[in-house]
Design goal:
Elements lengths: L1 H17 L1 H25 L3 E10 L5 E9 L5 E11 L5 E8 L10 E8 L2 H4 L4 E11 L7 E10 L5 E9 L8 E8 L5 E9 L14 E8 L8 E7 L12 E2 L5 E5 L4 E2 L4 E7 L3 E8 L5 E3 L3 E3 L5 E11 L4 E3 L3 E5 L5 E8 L11 E8 L5 E9 L6 E4 L1 E4 L2 E6 L7 E10 L4 E3 L7 E4 L6 H22 L4
Parallel strand pairs: 15-22
Antiparallel strand pairs: 1-2, 2-5, 3-4, 3-6, 7-8, 8-11, 9-10, 9-12, 12-13, 14-16, 16-19, 17-18, 17-20, 20-21, 20-22, 23-24, 24-28, 25-26, 25-29, 27-28, 29-30, 29-31
The structure holds calcium ion (2 copies).
The site of one calcium ion has 9 residues, from loops.
């Protein structure tokens, strides 16, 4: 490779020496002609236009004006010069800067950024306005496409600076050199907010030349206002190869995901819809349920067979550039279980309810997830109608209601119905319990019998005493 290269260089060198004077003369004439035409063209046509521009004072205190231009004509263009004129509040010119655009050759429809800087801190503060002008450009020959960016990675360092590291490959048939890599950084309004470029190859093993199929790495940096950047575009050119088509927009912002369902509430069903919006096109979507591994989904879905309890869900999505976004964590509860009814008791006890007695019924009702909404006591005296009484909370989880008094011999049946805040309902009947009692007489039977027995005994004794004595 080295021998080949040296020979090529020697050949070039000889050629140059031999034709030096001719070339110098020719160049002078050509430059004169081209300059004349350029100025004329620049004034009379608009094959190059300024698409957008912006300004800021950089970390050194210098006033930067940057933007991008586009070739909107039919022919390749090179050597585009931009002049920025800086004015103070009186409208007086306080400085100018003229620069070539970052890429030299611009094929039709292609864009290139530019950067002009007024390197005087003291003047920066006085600038109130500025004007940007394309002052010259030239038409040139077409150049073949011979460079390709084969990888690029974006990372943000601890300062918040944005680094792009990648590789560029010579995909042409000839060796190439003087490769310029350009990164144009944009804000969300597609305005250029920073630009960086590097000339390659910078170092060994490619001291000068990049042979066909060889590649070299590049690193580009945005550090002036990285917080404004939402995407970037890479472009390249070398002395013999034209710029490759700009890379697709290198999006560096993560998608924004808003979960519409589930909401932060309690559901009475075990199948809960998962619906959400994503701010941009995606290459992948998924969700994590209760912190578990991601489930890939194609879009809105339903999370099935959820167990009762508290759950979390986070939706993730990758945009087409691979930036992953995450929704907020959504907390929700599933409650498909009715309350528990325990410790049912009545006063008086079921074998001791007298005709004058109201019966107080107590029950402990709990519901872990959504809470108890209401508890009712339903009772019947066997006439086919049920009386419903709302139970009231006594203390803790104890609920209470009263059954009115009934005449002697009435059979009273009652049940308790409990409902949680998700309308899950349970009755004591469903739990397999039967509650009933019969109203007993004022004096229980055995007392009467005893009384009769005593009276009989007394009567017999009296009767015996009255019998005639022998
Ligand atoms: Ca994005
Ligand atoms: Ca419940």
């Amino acid at each position: 490779m080295n021998i080949k290269k040296k020979k090529w260089q020697e050949k070039q060198s000889k050629t140059n020496k031999k034709d030096l004077w001719n070339i110098l003369l020719f160049t002078f004439l050509l430059t004169t002609i081209i300059t004349f035409f350029s100025i004329a063209e620049a004034e009379t046509s608009s094959d190059v236009i300024i698409l957008n521009y912006d300004s800021f004072i950089d970390w050194d205190g210098y006033y930067n004006v940057l933007g991008e231009v586009q070739n909107i004509g039919q022919n390749p263009i090179e050597s585009i010069e931009i002049t920025t004129t800086f004015y103070d509040e009186n409208g007086s010119v306080v400085g100018t800067d003229t620069k070539r655009t970052c890429l030299d050759v611009l094929l039709p429809e292609r864009k290139t950024p530019f950067l002009t800087i007024l390197k005087d801190k003291d003047i920066s503060e006085k600038i109130t306005t500025y004007g940007v002008q394309i002052i010259s450009y030239q038409y040139c020959d077409w150049k073949p496409i011979g460079l390709k960016i084969i990888s690029n990675y974006t990372s943000t360092d601890e300062h918040g600076w944005l680094h792009i590291v990648g590789e560029v490959q010579n995909i042409g048939y000839s060796a190439t050199s003087s490769i310029r890599m350009v990164a144009t950084f944009y804000n969300e309004n597609n305005t250029v907010v920073e630009v960086d470029w590097i000339d390659l190859p910078e170092e060994t093993p490619f001291t000068d030349w990049l042979e066909p199929a060889e590649k070299t790495t590049f690193e580009l940096l945005a550090f002036q206002r990285p917080w404004l950047i939402t995407k970037y575009v890479l472009a390249a050119e070398s002395w013999n190869y034209a710029i490759i088509p700009e890379s697709p927009d290198m999006d560096i912002t993560s998608p924004t995901i808003a979960v519409l369902s589930p909401k932060n509430k309690t559901y009475a069903v075990s199948d809960v819809p998962l619906s959400f919006t994503v701010s941009e096109s995606t290459s992948w979507m998924g969700y994590s349920f209760d912190g578990q591994a991601n489930n890939t989904i194609a879009g809105n879905t339903t999370i099935l067979d959820l167990p009762d309890g508290m759950h979390t869900v986070i939706v993730y999505a990758n945009d087409t550039a691979g930036n992953m976004g995450a929704s907020n964590t959504v907390y929700f509860t599933v409650d498909t279980t009715p309350p528990n009814i325990t410790d049912i008791s009545q006063t008086p006890l079921e074998n001791n309810v007298l005709p004058e007695d109201e019966v107080k019924v107590n029950a402990t009702v709990t519901d872990e997830l959504s809470g108890v909404k209401q508890v009712t006591l339903n009772y019947t005296s066997g006439d086919g109608t049920w009386v419903t009484v709302n139970m009231t909370k006594l203390e803790g989880n104890v609920w209470n209601a009263t059954i009115s008094a009934f005449p002697y011999g009435t059979d009273v049946t009652y049940k308790i119905i409990a409902e949680d805040n998700m309308d899950n309902t349970i009755t004591t009947e469903e739990l397999g319990y039967q509650y009933q009692y019969t109203v007993v007489p004022e004096f229980p039977t055995w007392t009467s019998m005893l009384l009769i027995l005593i009276m009989l005994t007394v009567a017999i004794v009296i009767y015996k005493r009255r019998l005639p004595k022998h």
